[in-house]
Structures are given as structure tokens and as C-alpha cells.
Amino acid sequence: MSAKHVYATSDTMLSDGTPTRRGELWLADDPLVQQYPQAFTDDPEAAGLVRRSGPAPSSPSASAVETATAAPGERRTRTPRA
User: Fold this and answer.
1) Bridge partners for 5 per DSSP
2) Are 42 and 5 in contact (CB under 8 A)?
3) CA atoms within 13 A on the CB side of 44
4) Which of 17, 55, 50 is nearest to 36 (CA)?
5) What Rg value do the Cα atoms of the chain yield, rounded?
């Protein structure tokens, strides 16, 4: 893992007896992180650790995106400015 920090992906007890809690922040170079990389992630969003009350800002809804060019056979109309 190339990140400085990683997040525990679940509440679990590692085989050496160390508990981890989902979302807990760990240093990426920690010996336990190196020994159990499957128990950690450097992308908290992909692991479902980030909560949002709405859609992500980087993903606008498809209906909000306007097409700049007309499709074949489509006629564009202009609305006169007042």
C-alpha cells in the first residue's frame, strides 16, 4: 500500500489477538497492516466507510448534464433572449 494511512475494513480480531474496528485509522507502515493487508484499505469510500446524505459531488446525475451537440436527425431550437 502506498498511502500513509489506511483504514480497518471491519470489526474483527486479527489472528494475533489484536482487535480492529471498522473505519479505524492505522499507519500504513504498521507491522500488523503489513502482516494483514486484506484487513485494511487506503480507499475509505470504496470500502463504504464514508457516509453521504446525497449523491457524491463528483458524480452529477445524468439528467443534469446537457448535450452540447445535436444527435443525428435532431433539430435544435433557440430561445430568443429578452
Assistant:
1) 27
2) yes
3) 13
4) 17
5) 23
CA dist 63 to 14, 58, 60, 66, 67, Å?
Answer: 46, 15, 8, 8, 10
Q: Quick one: cell of 12?
A: 474483527
Q: Tell me the per-residue pLDDT of 29-70, one tens digit each, with 9 for 90 and over.
A: 999 999 999 999 998 887 788 877 887 676 555 556 666 777
Q: Please check whether residue 8 is in contact with residue 16, taking contact to mean a CB–CB distance below 8 angstroms.
A: no
| Strand ranges for 9-70 from DSSP E | 12-13, 19-20, 25-27, 40-41
CB neighbour list of residue 42: distance below 8 Å, 6 or more residues apart: 1, 2, 3, 5, 6, 7, 28
The residue behind cell 452529477 is 60
Stretch 8-33: mean pLDDT: 92
Could you please report the per-residue DSSP string of 9-20?
A: -SSEE-TTS-EE
* Residue type for position 81: R
